[in-house]
Specification:
This protein has about 425 residues and is α+β, with helices and mostly antiparallel strands. Helices cover about 15% and strands about 25% of the residues. Helix 5 packs across helix 7 and helix 6 runs antiparallel to helix 7. The longest helix is centred in the N-terminal third of the chain and has 19 residues.
């Protein structure tokens, strides 16, 4: 019995000594640090960008940060709250997030995921159309390349009865944006707009082939629109960049089976500036939002909504944009048809800041009140110039050499109604 009491006392002493020595095992805290906050990108170049983030306010013990690019951890830990990522590809979208680590390499959760773009190498006019990335496959098939979108306009510009294919290419992941008006949207830098002019050899049967004449291209570079033109060769296998104008003899069969001959005018670079310019600023003419607001032939959906669904347009729906009337639609009021025709064919020059001297007192923009257009006071001259083919007198002076008979008939009806 004494032996048992002795052993119990020894056990109590050992326990007491253990407590005195501080031996009281506790669970080690292995909680990961808090995640970084507010990851942003700045200082983008063609091949690099700078990432910046904020440390969490309770991030005690953090010894570094790890950057993930497209889900893969980059080599090395970052001790600061910013880093420049190098060796990227121009004009490319990347996904980034950042985590925090402590001395035991416990890793935090992810920061916000950031989609960031490198700057695309500025576009320029290359010697050959095939180098511009507009068409894929056989060039003369006019099949848009990957990333190039077909579009149409509701009321069109007349160019000696030539057909036109309209294309647009936006930088990857970027879009046109609503500009608080029915007019042109805001286009991102490195936008390419192409318009190809051609004639069907026989309008009664387009499958018999076509004669492609030129592909005009607008490039937006560093906030400025540049104009260029590519002239197709006789074999229809290539088009070459050229800045000088010329006349091309064209023959085709119209829809009534009659032979037509046209001295088609290819514009010079300066001719392009005459129309695509206002107050010394170059701009596109056709793709105004109100002229895109209809159901085109390539889809059964309103074009503005269709482009929005593709991610090519933001901030607009078809319901909050007016419509530029189709001047060819005979069910519309003659006033609407005539004003739409003059808006798209004449107003780029005949408006304040346009290339026509202000002494003519004409403003053909659709949004201009009729009393301020000068149409009534100049109604006789308007018709005289529309039915003339004299180069120094006809209107428009550029883009046509023959009389636009259907439009002239419509404009005569309009003028007689005033």
């Amino acid at each position: 019995m004494k032996k048992l009491v002795f052993l119990a006392l020894i056990g109590l002493m050992i326990t007491a000594c253990g407590k005195d020595d501080g031996y009281d095992p506790v669970e080690v805290d292995t909680q990961a640090p808090s995640k970084p906050l507010n990851l942003t990108a700045s200082e983008q170049t063609e091949t690099s960008l700078k990432l910046s983030w904020e440390a969490s306010t309770d991030n005690v013990g953090v010894t570094g940060y790890r950057i993930y690019q497209d889900g893969t951890a980059l080599v090395g830990l970052i001790t600061e709250t910013s880093a420049t990522i190098q060796n990227l590809t121009a004009g490319t979208a990347y996904s980034f997030y950042v985590t925090a680590l402590d001395a035991e390499e416990n890793e935090s959760g992810q920061s916000n995921t950031l989609e960031a773009f490198t700057i695309q190498q500025p576009l320029s006019f290359l010697p050959l159309l095939s180098q511009m990335g507009v068409f894929g496959g056989n060039l003369s098939d006019l099949d848009p390349a990957n990333g190039v979108q077909l579009y149409e306009i509701n009321s069109t510009l007349f160019t000696d009865y030539a057909h036109k294919q309209r294309l647009i290419r936006l930088p990857d992941g970027q879009s046109m944006r609503f500009n608080n008006s029915n007019l042109l949207p805001t286009f991102p830098d490195n936008t390419l707009i192409a318009k190809t002019f051609y004639y069907n050899l026989d309008e009664r049967d387009p499958s018999l082939g076509k004669k492609i004449i030129e592909t005009r291209i607008l490039l937006k570079v560093n906030g400025t629109w540049l104009v260029g033109d590519y002239i197709w060769n006789t074999a229809q296998t290539e088009a070459t960049y050229r800045e000088t104008g010329s006349t091309e003899a064209i023959s085709y069969i119209d829809g009534n089976g009659n032979a037509q001959n046209v001295d088609y005018q290819i514009p010079s670079k300066q001719d392009c500036f005459t129309c695509h310019n206002n107050n010394a600023t170059t701009f596109p003419i056709g793709p105004k939002l109100r002229n895109l607001n209809f159901i085109p032939s390539y889809t059964n959906q309103n074009q503005l909504d269709y482009l929005t669904g593709l991610g090519l347009l933001q901030g607009v729906t078809s319901g909050n944009i007016s419509v530029l009337p189709n001047w060819e639609d005979e069910t519309l009021l003659i006033d609407d048809r005539a004003r739409a025709y003059m808006d798209v064919n004449c107003a780029h020059c005949h408006q304040p800041g346009g290339s026509v001297p202000p002494g003519f007192f004409l403003d053909f923009r659709l949004e201009t009140a009729f009393g301020d257009t000068g149409i009534y006071a100049n109604r006789g001259e308007i018709i005289a110039r529309f039915q003339s083919t004299l180069p120094t007198y006809r209107m428009p002076q550029l883009g046509r050499t023959v009389i636009h008979g259907e439009a002239l008939q419509m404009l005569n009806e309009y003028i007689d109604s005033l």
